[in-house]
Amino acid sequence: MKPKLIIGIVAIVGFTSLLMYNFGESISTYTTFENAGERSNAHIPGVWDKEKGAEFSLETKRFTFHMIDEAGVSRKVVYPKPKPNNFEEADQLVVIGEMRGDIFYADQMLMKCPSKYNDADPGQFTDAATS
Amino acid sequence: MLGTVGKLLISASFVTSLAAMIFFFISANRDQEKTFRIGNWLFALKTIFIVAASGILIYLIFQHQFQYYYVFNYTSLDLTPRYLFSAFYGGQEGSFMLWIMFSAFFGFGLMKWTREPYKAPVLFFLTLTQVFLLSMLLGWDIFGLKLGASPFRTIAEEMPNAPFLQANPDFVPNDGSGLNDLLKSPWMMIHPPVLFIGFAMMTIPYCFAMAALWKQKYNEWIGPALPWTLSANVALLTAIFLGGYWAYVTLSFGGFWAWDPVENASLVPWLIGTAGIHTMIIQRKSSVAQKSSILFAILAYIAIVYETFLTRSGILGSSSVHSFVDLGLYNQLLAFMLVVTIVGLGLFFWRYKELPSPDKESKVLSREFMTVTGAMLLLILGLVIILGTSSPILGRLFVENPTPPEISFYNDWSMPIAMIMAIFTVVGQYLFWKRYDDAESLASELVNPLLVTSTFTILAIIFGDVRNIYYMVYLFCGFFAIVGNTWILIRLVKRQPKLIGGSLTHVGFGLLLVGILASSAYNRPLVDQKTAQYNEAVRQGEVTDEQGFKVTQTEEMLMLDLDQPVLVDGRYMVTYEGYELDNKVRRGQQTYKIKFEPIDGGKPFYMHPEVYPMLTTSSAENIQWSVDPDVRTRLLSDIYLYVGGSSYVQEQNDRVQENRSMMQNVAAQDTTEEDLVQKFEFTPGQSIDIGKYTIRFVNYMKTDSTELPPNTQIGVRAEIELIHPASDRIVTLNPLFAVYSENGQSYIYSPPSFAQEFGLEFQFTEIKPQQNSIEITVTGLEEEYEPEWVLIVADEKPLISVVWSGTFLLMIGFSISIFRHWGRERKKNIE
What we know:
The complex is a heterodimer.
Chain A: H1 3-26, H2 33-36, E1 42-48, E2 54-57, E3 62-69, E4 74-79, E5 92-100, E6 103-113, E7 124-127
Parallel strand pairs in A: 4-6
Antiparallel strand pairs in A: 1-3, 1-5, 2-3, 3-4, 5-6, 6-7
Chain B: H1 2-30, H2 33-62, H3 69-74, H4 81-87, H5 92-113, H6 119-135, E1 140-142, E2 145-147, H7 155-158, H8 163-167, H9 186-215, H10 222-250, H11 261-286, H12 290-312, H13 330-350, H14 367-389, H15 391-394, H16 407-433, H17 439-463, H18 469-495, H19 501-521, E3 524-525, H20 529-540, E4 557-561, E5 566-568, E6 572-582, E7 589-598, E8 605-607, E9 610-613, E10 625-628, E11 630-633, E12 637-646, H21 647-664, E13 676-682, E14 687-690, E15 693-701, E16 712-724, E17 729-733, E18 736-742, E19 745-749, E20 753-755, E21 760-768, E22 773-781, E23 789-798, H22 800-830
Antiparallel strand pairs in B: 1-2, 3-23, 4-23, 5-6, 6-7, 7-8, 7-9, 9-10, 11-12, 12-23, 13-22, 14-15, 15-16, 16-17, 16-18, 18-19, 20-21, 21-22
Helix pairs in contact in B: 1-2, 1-6, 2-5, 5-6, 5-9, 6-9, 6-13, 9-10, 9-12, 10-11, 10-22, 11-12, 11-14, 12-13, 12-14, 14-16, 16-18, 16-19, 17-18, 18-19, 19-22
């Protein structure tokens, strides 16, 4: 084989494996509060724990509420932005951030909202920041 | 009734399309002119059918026929005609129709201008793609096998199990659910048509490449395909720009690009199409790169179909902000994608051995090598982005339930690739216009541009306070692309101004690189000094919360009290001057007035962010607020600002909350009445409206020392005006504040002053020298004072204008090339 071809193949294989490795590192899996562990970018789906309320504090400029994850565990979530527009009517939330002790610090929050009439429609996710 | 006609028209369009496709196939196979003409007639008929069906849908929308699900779901009575019209392509079905129509119109252009032997096969492939697109709209139900989702389906067909329909099958809603407020923007009206023009045009290079493979004529096809590809590129770029600009001025994520799958869906075909343009141009010059031209033309269209599959099949689900509603088209879209890919790549590899190869390999320092490598880099970038966008599928290789990749994945890979590209644009352009036999002669030509580039980079590093070495290298590459290509541009303008298209686009690319870095990495949140210090401490890792954990989230919000100026970023005095309610544009919309005064003496200016209730999703029990940022654009930087909350919004929410709890608990008792004691803070000259009164702090007054207690250290009186507008009475009060010492201890003396006619009691209770303000305690007011405030999020984004100008240069450059290549094609056609 020509040396050029070998270099080419090595380059392609090297590039692809690096790319795939990095890709694998940059995605994570949807998880629960208990399993979030030390991860700084944990994605946790769940629902708002309505009984424990939700409030935006003007002093700390943080929005706090409790969320029940898919394992049924309720934890306090702190979100450093105003309350997202469609927070109350979301039937599912995804909080993205990290667990510190018993409190989850969310950097991002996604909301899945039911559409108005259609009970069969799974609805859509909208990003908290954009809706 | 009309709906049935519409359904029939779509079915007729599908059937005639299928027939046209068969005739084009026969014609291409046997080189028959007669069958080709029949195909043309069928194609025209198909176009009439789909145009008529679209006309009916538009008519139904304008007639507010809410029994049709599409009309119900995307429109409402209050929409103005232009938004009613844009609702036609606001949903998935309508956007397919628009796509097909554009594709059909371009089909007539192809019939007219395409030369033999490509004519019939090109139209065959074009019609093939239209057959697939039309099948998405059929709404046929063949023995339980559902084919397509008709835009003309009724609400009853859409939701057979809904309880309100079971009770009353003829139910017609009074009003539709309406167009999402965020989409009510002129940018969003023109964005989809431009995008689908791009999608439809990008089909054409695919058709030509397939025709070339079929007819084994591998060189001539690029002549007509090149202007089409260039046009598709300009359309896609314009659509990307419109989408990005809309996101920037409408959404509150504070940028123009978020690597969202839907954004990627138009970027990737653009990148691969641009790769195709590069190889086509070099193939025209020196008969190399035939293989890659064909491959890129095929891949660009596959990218469009693949991204269509991702965004419309529902597979992205949670990972995209605005993926379409799942219409159950998964299998059909998958089939479409597989056919386009297998037929395309299959034919390519079938003919692969036959495809011409260059006699000898090109040298590294040749325009052929440089251009092809540039094209490869564009392809690689496109593939990286496809990989990221495909995370719901490909992520399963690594984890179950994969999430989308972090944004850093896209940034980390695209930045170095873009940097290499930037270098290649300059070297490639030098080699493109002139031969250099050895590296030394090229290097000596590049000395001057490199010197200028270095100067610019150093200046940018100093003035922009760039500390990151990686960014420095990146900036150098960006400036090199700008300077080097401008150098060539100037030379070309002198000699052959018609040929400047390429250099213009490359200058635009360089500007984009610099602008993107400046606007994103050097985005400055505008906060007051205290928050800035806090954020700095957070970044240093010095802040811990009550539990002892390190705080990592910085604060980017700024709270402004009415008429209380705050110094922001050490440069602006920012004052909230109130809001106006306006029902004209949107019901319940508040426009806030925020004043910015540059402290270095620049001209003051106002920003007017808006907040409005989303009518489509709000109800009496729950108001959903949406924000409309304000952007102030200047040459060097933009100020981007939106309202995160305000006293008005909170009041409205409390009111709604109260209504709700009152309904639940009618017996709730009013709180027992008691004299309220409230504290107010005043600066000299400030007045506060509270209930029936206005209280104004005029200024300090001289004190008569006889009234003061002995050993007084400080003794001040305030002049307070209590204004009662209803009776036109003004009561002036002079409460005293004194500090005196007794037995070595300090005491505050603030005797109450009375406004007897109103039953109010005033006390001067504190002086705050730092704020130049005083505190007055008032007893006896009925209403509780609620200060008016607003919470804003403001950013300063440098050089966004450079991003836009880079984009415009790309558009202009590509457009110039269209005219050049199209002009040459026209001449050939006349011959």
